[in-house]
Design brief:
Blueprint: H1 3-32, H2 36-69, H3 77-97, H4 102-119, E1 129-134, H5 161-171, E2 174-178, H6 181-191, E3 195-200, H7 202-211, E4 217-221, H8 236-247
């Protein structure tokens, strides 16, 4: 477990402890001056609190254990997903209070997600694997619209799209370029992939991973030498490595993009 993963796991652990302390304080305040109605509310509050702590506690324990042994725990996958979904927003707030950059926390979340996906050791048929790329990988001055059809790319080599098409062609996987979440969801509905290799910034990747639910997503962060959403880059080696993991082929090195 490297330091990046520990950031996110540590923050949701702190969040869980804070929730437990707050629930204890509320319990003590109500129970000290409880009439019949308050007793009913107290029992209800205690029941809900116990369920919350149990679910989140199991989820956090399963998350840490699954990463540690590098194997999934099928019976507890739902608890892991619920825990990350519920506590992620609070982890961001606590991280902000502690002075941790939001992108660092989101990057840590992506690392955790990627390891959990890899631990499942799935075999995905190439035709059911989708590389989902952002339109900002295309050079801003390019005249060829590839969000409608990536095959409109002229393969000039001035951006990473040429390299991505090379990977997609050699492995037989699908490649689409989306302008945002709406178009990305449209492609997912149409192509019905069993897994996704998603390229994006920290914000869009975390949102996309959470939106897809049980659909496995391996996230690859883009590189932003000119700032967000403008002439971005991506490591083709990382993309090909992710594709190789999913289709269980030996990843081969590509030319740099």
């Amino acid at each position: 477990m490297n330091i990046k993963k520990r950031i996110f796991i540590g923050l949701i652990g702190v969040t869980l402890v804070i929730c437990l302390l707050l629930m204890t304080i509320v319990w003590m305040l109500i129970s000290n001056k409880a009439n019949m109605l308050q007793n009913i509310l107290l029992i209800s509050f205690g029941t809900v609190s116990l369920m919350f702590i149990t679910i989140v506690g199991l989820g956090l324990t399963a998350l840490v254990w699954s990463i540690w042994i590098a194997k999934p725990i099928p019976s507890l996958q739902r608890f892991i997903q619920v825990t990350t979904d519920w506590l992620f927003p609070f982890a961001l707030k606590i991280g902000k209070i502690l002075g941790i950059e939001q992108d660092v926390i989101k990057s840590s979340f992506i690392e955790v997600n990627n390891q959990l996906v890899q631990a499942k050791m799935m075999t995905i048929p190439p035709e059911r694997l989708l590389i989902l790329a952002p339109h900002c990988l295309q050079q801003s001055n390019c005249l060829h619209k590839i969000t409608v059809d990536v095959n409109n790319c002229q393969r000039c080599g001035n951006c990473c799209v040429d390299g991505l098409m090379d990977i997609a062609g050699r492995y037989g996987v699908n490649l689409v370029v989306a302008t945002g979440g709406t178009l990305a969801r449209k492609f997912i509905v149409e192509l019905r992939p069993r897994a996704i290799i998603a390229i994006a910034c920290e914000r869009d990747l975390t949102t996309g991973i959470q939106d897809t639910g049980s659909l496995p997503v391996l996230g690859v962060l883009n590189i932003r030498p000119e700032g967000p959403c403008w002439n971005t880059l991506v490591s083709l080696e990382k993309v090909e490595y992710a594709v190789g993991l999913m289709v269980h082929k030996q990843p081969r090195l590509t030319k740099s993009g």
